[in-house]
Amino acid sequence: MGSALVKGLSKADDYTLTACDLDPDALDSVAEYCSTTTSDPDVAAESDIVIVALKPDIVQHVVGDLDLSADQTLVTLAAGVSTDTLEPHTDATVVRVMPNLAAETGNMAAAVTQHSVNDDVREILDAVGEFVEVDEQQMDIATAVNGSGPAFVFYLLNAMKQAGVEGGLEDDEAKTLAAQTFKGAAETVLQSDQSIDDLIDAVCSPKGTTIEGMDVLWDSDADEAVVDAVSAAERRSKELATESENE
């Protein structure tokens, strides 16, 4: 996730980016997008905004080792780790963000804690996609919807691609058609004033091809499976929160 943000922000031309990691391969993978790469956390900690993209079980320890001042902002991407958990370990303003991998292409969906977000963080998020400000109690479900959501979409997209291949399309043809269809449908939802149900109806002409396919979906448990997947991801985010509080 950290590398996706670095790559996305590098296209904005408004930021001086410093990447810090102990893994030289990780640094090499983002070197062309950064002004500086380093394995020294003190160098990275000189930035006005410090983003920590770490596993939940180590984020407290790393944040505690960073010497940040009250004039700085600490943005955490760690799933399940609350601002309350990190605030005792730093003097910086703590902002919790759950982005997703589409930050790399400028198409990110992110949730951010409304009580602590500031304009500098808003500008960063706006540079790489869309974001919503939510009560921190809603961050677990946001983590499931937009953080884990890309994997669920990839799964569904791959199913459509496979259907195209089984119907006779070449693999790359089916991939392009399926991916562009998801992309176009998502953009339509974002730009339209119509509800999603109304948009479905708009595609379903009577006795046409789409209504035949939708009848299969309506008669299936496909929607329940997606809800269950999101619920499972939300439940795990809450478990991570409990684990981090007990560290």
UniProtKB/TrEMBL annotation:
One Pfam family it belongs to: P5CR_dimer
Residues engaged in binding NADP(+): 53-56
Domain Pyrroline-5-carboxylate reductase dimerisation: 136-240
Catalytic activity of the protein: L-proline + NAD(+) = (S)-1-pyrroline-5-carboxylate + NADH + 2 H(+); L-proline + NADP(+) = (S)-1-pyrroline-5-carboxylate + NADPH + 2 H(+)
SUPFAM superfamilies per UniProt: 6-phosphogluconate dehydrogenase C-terminal domain-like, NAD(P)-binding Rossmann-fold domains
Keywords: Amino-acid biosynthesis, Cytoplasm, NADP, Oxidoreductase, Proline biosynthesis
Primary location class: cytoplasm
GO MF annotations, alphabetized: pyrroline-5-carboxylate reductase activity
InterPro entries: 6-PGluconate_DH-like_C_sf, NAD(P)-bd_dom_sf, P5C_Rdtase_cat_N, P5CR_dimer, Pyrroline-COOH_reductase
Protein role: Catalyzes the reduction of 1-pyrroline-5-carboxylate (PCA) to L-proline.
Protein name: Pyrroline-5-carboxylate reductase
